Amino acid sequence: MLGTALTGWSEAQQPPPRFPRDFSNDVVSGSLASPHARSLRAPFIPGLHEQMERTFPNIVRAAGMIFSATVQRIERHPASAGQSVETVAITLHVERAIRGAMPGEDLTISQWIGLWSGGQRYRVGERVLLFLYPRSKLGLTSCVGGSLGRFNIDAWGRVALSARQLSAFQTDPVLRGKSRVAFGDFALAVRHADEEE
């Protein structure tokens, strides 16, 4: 696993952090409230525990899926016999794909509820470009580098970079200094980053 390779920790060796925040006011397609919210422990998710250098090539290489999409549906899935942790399922209509998805498909990803409560949220109708880790053994994924692996798509279909992304990716020859990038140029930046040694 990427997290293991970069940090030297295994799932068994690294205890997951506790999230003391009360989740009881979180709502998505009904309530995300959990009677056990205060005692939730994070499952091992690639990228959640790793310490990687936050460069564009590293973000590109760590991603199993890269695509732009519109959020269609958000559903809470409580822990069950088949799934040991509470999750949020986000269904996205893929518009353009760079890796691991097909344009036009409806793709559902599952995210640990603790990430949602920690701020990694989606809204129905929102247009995003995502760099997602390969799915874990639990079928979960998340954005590579947290907010660095998630971009908004503006009304003209351009990829919008946040101030944090502008700072982190300032050495990239295509993205450097641009707060808005045409999708084709962004895909080119991904290809160049993937080819870097």
Which sequence of strands runs across the widest sheet? 3-2-1-4-5-6-7
Backbone structural class: alpha+beta
Q: What is the mean pLDDT?
A: 78
Oligomer: single chain
Work out the number of β strands: 7
Task: Report the sheet-strand fraction.
Answer: 15-25%
Number of helices: 5
Following the backbone from N to C, one meets helices and strands in this order, namely: HHEEEHEEEHEH
Radius of gyration: 17 Å
- Gross morphology is globular
The level of helicity is 10-25%
Whole-number total of structural domains: 1
Give the biggest beta sheet: 7 strands, antiparallel
> Which stretches are low in confidence, meaning pLDDT under 50 for 5 or more residues running?
1-51
Distance between the termini: 20 Å
Structural summary, described in words:
By secondary structure, this protein is of the alpha+beta class. It has one domain (2-195). Helix content is 19%, strand content 24%. The protein contains five helices and seven strands; from the N terminus they run ααβββαβββαβα. The protein has a seven-stranded antiparallel beta sheet. A hairpin with a 6-residue loop joins strand 2 (87-99) and strand 3 (106-112). Helix 2 (56-62) crosses helix 5. The chain is globular, with a radius of gyration of 17 Å. Mean pLDDT is 78; it is low at 1-51.
